[in-house]
Recover the amino acids of this structure.
């Protein structure tokens, strides 16, 4: 029984981090209707940048590593939007073009990382060792911390989106792009902001999960798929939805892995995706349809 | 005002490449094939032949992918899944059921059709980019499933070894016999490509695909049953690709999960991007360029995949219509693409 | 205040507006009347930076603004209220209105403008916490107009506010626009019929289809 609870808690922790990745994806898709297939590789990029500061080249403490990574990630997001996405947005077949180009970008990032850092896996030591034992249940402090950090990030983002002008602008563009233009919002700037936020969020998630899942060049596709299933289940455009969905699916994954082994994780996510798409493509809290 | 008198149905079907009608185009196509056949006979180098064998097999895959993505406008990213299904099915049938390879390949085609339908059915309900996500998820989820299949003889990570040689009515064709393989793969390749571009895409199905792609609601209004044609696109595309997979399995004698890996996927994408989708012979030219280019880049092995990725990004941004878009800019635009 | 000279707009090969010229003086309320499909929406969209202009000039307070992006025009005081309203569905009435005051200049006057909007449309004050996806057509139109006003416009370009609304509701709506015009707001309004606008407007243009061929679509005549 205690094991079941531990699996539950572990699933919730992972769900929290998945939530961060999913919201990153949802921000961009909501604002621009662009599926960023490079999202997973940016998760990986985050891990490597932090690794560089914490283990590889410097030996900063992890929190400093995260802080140092943030501006790099943010700039990457802006650069990607400006250089790669923006030229395509006006094109006739922008949907397929952006899918292709982000897929290509994903491979560029991954192979680039592989060339720079080598093909093996890397890891970052969690910033706290040790476990908390409560009523027979053991949970590592690290997991508690990343759970808290993730929730903090999600909350911070939510505050930003509802109370700051630029956050409201992001929501406005997501809900009605022309309407946003009509009130004077510079849509290009919003896209850049959405991308920057997206990359920062997913990059930090990559750093947080580095001790758990390790960092490897091609390791971004898993998180990418999971993030999308979460966004689909949660409902497009709904942060609350992504939140709820992330926990549900994170816990489900934890149980499936516990009973069937890690190899069934990916197929399980695929099944979950199919189920959601077939039963309720709008998601739990689907807000706006195109 | 657009001169509607010039807007004839056949001019929108982009397998027109001489602009002078079906017979001329067909003759030109088969002349090119004959030329390639002669080339295979004359150039004795086995590496050269090997590269072209790969080209011919890839042509089938890319032509099928062009059919569903370029012509029908369905964002299918599970194409290599069909390839893998074909390869594994044919291999397993030949090895375990000891069926003669040609028959295995044919059966692989049938199995491909079934898998195509399985992937297509859920996709019918999804709009555009969700299909991309779903099919890509299928692509991502397959390798672990294959690894689980080790128990049923799928060979796991190391793959399935010992696929028997192709048996052409009693005549065994070993992998080493590059010349025969050259002609065999050219035969299969050219027939499949011809069927796809000249029969399917120029016929009623092709018209329906293009209508679906370019003007969905209008197409429905004139009676194009979108679900039926979407499913058909998946099935037809999958059949040919699975057959290509079967051929590939018997050529290389080995089937591994690598065919679902980054390298193949990336190469296929570059082929479509560089060549251009939705307009014959764009994608086919893309195959030639990329396979040959890939071989030329072998010396940079570490950087090869990086180059391929960069190629996709650069080509899509600067030449979104691919090579064929560049070549065609001089011709007056027929139809939408 | 606003001057169009020989404006041409195309959608692909389709020539929608053909050499359109018109003007709106400061403080005027000018209407453009036309049946559906004759280019009146396109006209407003072209002026307000939503649709690109193929050729011709558009001057706003003397500055050439043709093909400027809509957000920039809002900053200059040219505000567009779309026929399909374009509200933010998952935001409340209040949030939509507040977003109208997105730009700094408008934001300075946010409080006053909000009070004014609520005074003009008391119904909105009542429903300020309601999500816009749940509003009725009339209420949505009020929000759209209100949001436009929050942007502190010098010229308000309104596209068919009566679309889908009952006549009495439309009348009330247009009365408030007329009131604003009397207070000094310049208005360019596009409608299908002159009926409800009589008495409010200073001048009328009509937009009509010319000869059968598509290239003559949208020739504008000035009628008084």
């Amino acid at each position: 029984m205690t094991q079941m609870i531990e699996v539950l808690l572990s699933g919730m922790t992972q769900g929290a981090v998945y939530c961060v990745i999913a919201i990153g994806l949802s921000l961009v898709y909501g604002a621009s209707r662009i599926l960023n297939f490079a999202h997973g590789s940016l998760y990986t990029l985050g891990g490597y940048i932090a690794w560089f500061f914490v283990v590889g080249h410097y030996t900063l403490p992890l929190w400093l590593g995260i802080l140092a990574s943030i501006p790099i990630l943010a700039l990457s997001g802006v650069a990607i939007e400006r250089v790669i996405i923006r030229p395509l947005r006006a094109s006739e077949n922008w949907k397929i073009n952006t899918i292709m180009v982000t897929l290509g970008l994903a491979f560029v990032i991954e192979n680039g990382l592989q060339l720079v850092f080598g093909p093996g896996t890397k890891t970052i030591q969690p910033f706290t060792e040790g476990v908390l034992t409560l009523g027979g249940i053991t949970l590592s402090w690290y997991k508690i911390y990343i759970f808290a950090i993730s929730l903090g990030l999600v909350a911070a983002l939510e505050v930003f989106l509802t109370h700051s002008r630029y956050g409201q602008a992001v929501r406005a563009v997501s809900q009605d792009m022309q309407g946003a233009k009509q009130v004077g919002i510079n849509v290009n700037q919003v896209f850049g902001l959405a991308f920057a936020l997206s990359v920062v969020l997913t990059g930090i998630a990559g750093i947080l999960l580095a001790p758990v899942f390790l960092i490897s060049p091609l390791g971004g596709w898993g998180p990418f798929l999971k993030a999308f299933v979460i966004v689909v289940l949660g409902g497009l455009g709904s942060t609350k939805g992504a939140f709820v969905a992330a926990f549900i699916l994170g816990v489900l994954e934890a149980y499936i892995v516990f009973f069937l082994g890690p190899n069934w994780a990916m197929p399980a996510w695929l099944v979950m995706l199919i189920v959601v798409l077939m039963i309720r493509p709008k998601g739990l809290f689907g807000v706006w349809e195109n | 005002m657009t001169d509607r008198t010039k807007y004839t149905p056949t001019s929108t079907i982009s397998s027109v490449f001489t602009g002078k009608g079906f017979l001329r185009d067909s003759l030109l196509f088969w002349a090119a094939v004959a030329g390639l056949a002669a080339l295979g006979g004359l150039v004795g180098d086995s590496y050269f032949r090997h590269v072209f064998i790969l080209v011919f097999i890839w042509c089938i895959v890319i032509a099928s992918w062009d059919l569903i993505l370029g012509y029908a406008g369905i964002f299918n990213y599970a194409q290599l899944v069909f390839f893998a299904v074909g390869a594994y099915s044919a291999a397993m049938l030949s090895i375990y059921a000891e069926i003669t390879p040609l028959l295995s390949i044919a059966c692989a085609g049938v199995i491909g059709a079934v898998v195509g339908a399985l992937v297509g059915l859920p996709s019918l309900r999804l709009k555009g980019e969700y299909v991309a996500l779903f099919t890509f998820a299928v692509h991502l989820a397959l390798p672990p499933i294959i690894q689980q299949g080790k128990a049923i003889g799928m060979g796991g990570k190391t793959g399935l070894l010992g696929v028997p040689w192709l048996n052409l009515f009693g005549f065994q064709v070993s992998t080493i016999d590059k010349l025969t393989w050259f002609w065999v793969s050219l035969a299969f390749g050219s027939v499949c490509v011809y069927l796809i571009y000249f029969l399917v895409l120029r016929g009623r199905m092709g018209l329906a695909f293009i209508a679906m792609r370019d003007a969905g609601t209008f197409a429905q209004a004139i009676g194009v049953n979108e679900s039926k044609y979407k499913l058909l696109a998946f099935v037809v595309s999958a059949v040919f690709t699975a057959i290509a997979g079967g051929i590939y399995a018997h050529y290389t004698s080995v089937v591994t999960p690598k065919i679902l890996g980054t390298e193949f996927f990336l190469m296929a994408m570059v082929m479509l991007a560089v060549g251009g989708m939705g307009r014959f012979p764009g994608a086919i030219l893309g195959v030639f360029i990329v396979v040959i280019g890939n071989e030329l880049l072998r010396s940079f092995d570490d950087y090869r995949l990086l180059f391929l990725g960069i190629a996709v990004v650069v080509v899509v941004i600067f030449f979104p219509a691919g090579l064929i878009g560049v070549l065609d800019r001089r011709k007056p635009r027929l139809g939408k693409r | 205040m606003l001057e169009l000279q020989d404006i041409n707009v195309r959608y692909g090969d389709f020539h929608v507006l053909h050499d359109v010229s018109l003007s709106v003086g400061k403080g005027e309320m000018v209407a453009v009347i036309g049946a559906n499909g004759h280019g009146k929406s396109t006209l407003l969209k072209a002026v307000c930076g939503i649709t690109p202009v193929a050729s011709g000039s558009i001057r706003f307070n003397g500055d050439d603004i043709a093909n400027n992006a809509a957000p920039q025009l809002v900053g200059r005081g040219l505000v567009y209220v779309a026929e399909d309203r374009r509200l933010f569905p998952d935001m409340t009435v209040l949030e939509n209105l507040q977003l109208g005051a997105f730009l700094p200049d408008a934001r300075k006057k946010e409080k006053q403008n909000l009070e004014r909007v609520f005074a003009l449309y008391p119904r909105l004050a009542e429903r300020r916490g309601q999500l816009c996806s749940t509003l009725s057509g009339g209420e949505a139109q009020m929000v759209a107009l209100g949001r436009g006003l929050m942007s502190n416009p010098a010229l308000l370009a309104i596209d068919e506010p009566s679309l889908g609304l009952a006549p009495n509701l439309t009348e009330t709506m247009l009365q408030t626009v007329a009131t604003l015009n009397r207070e000094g707001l310049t208005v360019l309004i596009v409608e299908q019929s002159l009926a409800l606008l009589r008495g409010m407007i200073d001048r009328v243009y009509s937009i009509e289809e010319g000869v059968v061929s598509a290239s003559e679509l949208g020739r504008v005549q000035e009628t008084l």
User: Anything to note?
Assistant: Residues 210-224 of chain C have pLDDT under 50 and may be disordered. The longest helix of chain C spans residues 167-182. Chain C has eight helices and ten strands.
